Amino acid sequence: MENSKSILAAQESFESKQASMFIAVDKLFALHNDMLLESRLIKAFFVYCISIFIIYMFTSMKQTYKVRPWLYIGLCATFIIEVAILRLATDDNIEQKSWIINLVRSLFLLLASIQIRNAIYTYRDYEVLNHQMLLTLIEKINGMQDTRSWHGTWIVI
């Protein structure tokens, strides 16, 4: 009887130790998931910093500098969406989160490239057009003055 009581006590002690070990393992998993989340956020921060530089380089031309603010706004929105997906999504399916994040990034890349191409193809350099108009006007005025002087000399003769 005493042996079975000691075995029962040992089993209860083992159960309590096992429960405390499971609690510790759960805390370790939670810490591990938090570390993965923070490392993904740091990676995303660096990706978006590099993206800011790339957008700046692509929009430094005369043709594309007007779309720069829209691209920065879209980049900020994409970053906020990504952080929200990482922070607020309750499921622990990392593959699904990664797929959604890649989809959002790809959508931004597609829209940004469309905006840049549209800015390049629809760009009108008004300074060059004004210069060409002024040259045309000067040629016409010079032509009119030449015909007046020619007519004037013909009349005199």
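Second entry:
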Amino acid sequence: MTSSATAAAPIAFIDLAAQRARIGKRIDDAVQAVLSSCRFINGPQVGELEEKLAAFAGSKYAVTCSSGTDALALILMAWGLKPGDAVFCPAFTFCATAEVVPWVGATPVFVDVKEDTFNMDPESLELAIAIAVEQGLTPKAVIPVDLFGQPADYDALLPIAEKHGLKVLCDTAQGFGGTWNNRRTGSIGDATATSFFPAKPLGAYGDGGAIFTDSEELATILKSLREHGQGVDKYQNVRIGMTARLDTVQAAVLLEKLAIFEEEIAARDVVAKRYNALLKDVATVPVIDPRATSVWAQYTLRLPPGVRDGLADALKADGVPTAVYYRLPMHLQPAYRHYPAAGAILPVCEALAEEVISLPMHAYLDAATQDRIVDAVRRGLGR
């Protein structure tokens, strides 16, 4: 690797164009088929996608919907969460994880994360449950997040949930396609929500999401809720619902992307392992639990305090984009700081918010471009 690449063209953080160069004709044909049929809502591609998603995940049912956020909300609605109920969420996550909890009147209670994987800390969850009870709340559900592509520690979290009678809603918006003990995300817990936002490892050409469950009853309720709470038809409403369908065009796009998803997961893993090998001596590189596989939604380094922002500036000058997930933990966000947490301070979340930085990551990141990124990181860190 050399430093001569600094004058080269800017690098894409997530190169969707490279994927389109591979399967663009197939996607164009699939979209054209929808346009020709004029079945833009609930076309046959939606049902086909649900069948293939369920088979991929190893779940009995997949229910597609309009976004990953709506997927989370629909599950809480179907479970009948209400005021006075506590739902436990990691504080180091995107806001959607907790955002949906107040929508149903329940209270989010924030939990710290683990130092190694950045996923929910089981000990902090136990503390948060005790605090929720002290405040007169009824513990009802927990939402582990499969952060940056790696599944949470379900071996530890599921027994805690069972002990306290909590429903487990797995938020795999970043982790769909990963595995825990050889089980795909989507086949763990009581229900799973994922996102098909374009930047996700399996992304649509717009918003979209899906829910996975083995419960026929839950799947039936979810399908009703996403269609205004309809009963025998759309003019009979048996419950309060919403408009949360996945449109047929997005289903058609996702069918083509799902066909190559396994190959892209493998390619992402190659990129991540190469990053680790080339950067492990200058930064804290991601740790993958031996029981897990990651889809590497993000490749995130941890740096000593005070280093991150200077590195980001240096990389930007070299044409290398970066991102910070997340600069402010949920329990410190202005809209959420009045909700309970496992403690006044969640030390790991708060440290990570000051120290993490994510580098370009996608299935089409070639070795030469990755070498340029690594070279820029090492120079930016003076190494």
